[in-house]
Amino acid sequence: MSLLRLAARMGRIQPSATLALTARAKELAKQGHDVVALTAGEPDFDTPEDIRNAAAERLRKGGNVGRYTPASGLPELRKAVAEKFKRDNALHYSAEEVMVSCGGKHCCFNMVAALIDEGDEVVIPAPYWVSYPEMVRFYGGRPVIVDTSGTGFVLTPEALKAAITPRTRMLIVNSPSNPTGAVWSADDQRKLAAVLEGTEIAVMADEIYEKLVYDGQHVSFASLSNDAFNRTVTINGVAKAYAMTGWRIGYAAGPKHLIAAMGALQSHSTSNPTTIAQLATLDALAKDPIELPQWRRQYQQRRDAIVAGLSAIAGVKCAVPGGAFYVFPDFRAWMGKRHGDVQIKDCTSLCEALLAKVHVAGVPGCEFGAPGFVRFSYAASDAELAKAVQRISKFATELA
Ligand SMILES: Cc1ncc(COP(=O)(O)O)c(C=O)c1O
Q: Is 261 exposed, middle or buried (0-12, 13-18, 19+ CB in 10 A)?
């Protein structure tokens, strides 16, 4: 037993399951196995060349690129983010209502830290992104999980109403969604906004997949009404739209006092996000990447191919996701079956068996609050996706 006892709050969180499975798949690949890893949540494209070249030039020139910036981000970047929100989302924020953090995830963390006290409740529609409940629990809050698998992965106003108690402090809205890819329409969201009117419930609108929509249209929750605007923190970043996951830049916009509180917290934790990454984001945000339409076309083709492939397998139901780059098929009909010596008792044992037997890696739905489902990322080549479908089909024929 170590001398170093961990803080009690560490017992409330688990390491990211997505990263753990990705690591296992990589380990198998290193041992020489031909693994199709569809676990990671990042584009398989390079950061656009003009952004990389501009960053290289800035580094060559030196100067402030090697220095700290204000904790909440470069003033010109906060202004550029406010411009982006105006241009793309009809949201009118001042630069003081915007802050820049080390990724969209960091924005979410700052927001939860700034708002959630012990015992506060946060309504999280399931399936949810794995990190939301962990962040809430870390700060002593209580995630109130609302299952949306019976309503097309859309939270209904009735379900929201039923989940609200006097302790409710926040609702999380993530459209397009990770893991389901569901895109909530303006009408879906307007009904939720109406339920919140007259309450003091904050909304975290995580819009990181905004640019990756194939059916329907992205709508920012904060754009629905004045009331929605005043209670929402809109979170976005460059990771998914610009294929810049490794640069670690996200941004948040919302009520000035809340953004200031999140900035104060950040000033004592990470200080500023990396200066060169902020400058690269400044270059990026001037316009959508020229590659984006092409990426979107490719994602959509891959989506159509993997949905068709999975849907043709006996017992698998696969909804067509409107956005992001994930499919979230329902494997509940496989639960209780056997594959050779392995009993498929839940989605975790299914994912373990798929990885061990046919070398296809996906993430178990129970990690996202949806037992019996599996998330596959289609940010992978056509050939890899075809191979995955073919192997899962083969696995299916061997089930008893
Ligand atoms: C729903 C959702 N929100 C936020 C993020 C975080 O993105 P970033 O890389 O900017 O931290 C992710 C990344 O996977 C995500 O899926």
A: middle
